[in-house]
Known about the structure:
- The structure holds two protein chains of two kinds.
- Chain A contains no helices and eleven strands.
- Chain A is an all-beta fold.
- In chain A, strands 2, 4, 5, 6, 9, 10 and 11 form a seven-stranded mixed beta sheet that branches.
- Chain B has a five-stranded mixed beta sheet with strand order 1-9-8-3-4, with no helix packed on it.
- Classes of the chains: A mainly beta, B mainly beta.
- The interface of A and B includes residues 43, 59 and 97 of A.
Amino acid sequence: DVKVTQSSRYLVKRTGEKVFLECVQDMDxxxxxxxxxxxxxxxxxxxxxxxxxxxxxxDIPEGYxxxxxxKERFSLILESASTNQTSMYxxxxxxxxxxxxxxxxxxxxxxVV
Amino acid sequence: DAKTTQPPSMDCAEGRAANLPCNHSTIxxxxxxxxxxxxxxxxxxxxxxxxxxxxxxxxxxxxxxEDRKSSTLILPxxxxxxxxVYYCIVRVVKDDxxxxxxxxxxxxxx
Lengths: 113, 110
């Protein structure tokens, strides 16, 4: 019973390409998140959305943008991919303002060459 | 920035209780303590949360000190499947952002 689905498990892109990472949740959650995870650095928040068309920058938004046109879908966009964006990207969702857990997708391992 | 401090790694023998410490000395009165874990190649998974009372569920127990400046996650009978990175997080419920630290890598030894 997968609840948060990321469109790709593995992705290889070239430097300078525009990259879209897609995430869909089926729990009607208000909040959605994008993180990246790198060895020794843990999970770092890139962007957060608390409602459709609403977004907030996380700790490392540079080089990324996001789109949330529908409640269930949250897209992470790399406008011009660079090698330092090679990473594991994790999407999550949660219900707003309550003691509910965040559910994570399986992650997308992006390699930029 | 993460508001918690955890040891980078710990070992525990299979079948024994695993006690994972977390320091959160700057925690404020309306902040809760949450624990997540991440098994290799998977996304993080929620374990438990608490405010000031000890909490227990089917996965673990959470012990929070009286001054709330530290807490311990207890896995009562660790198995090899509990090998993972464990994250301690403090957050205000109305603040929906979840900020992770670097966590503790727990190795369960057979």
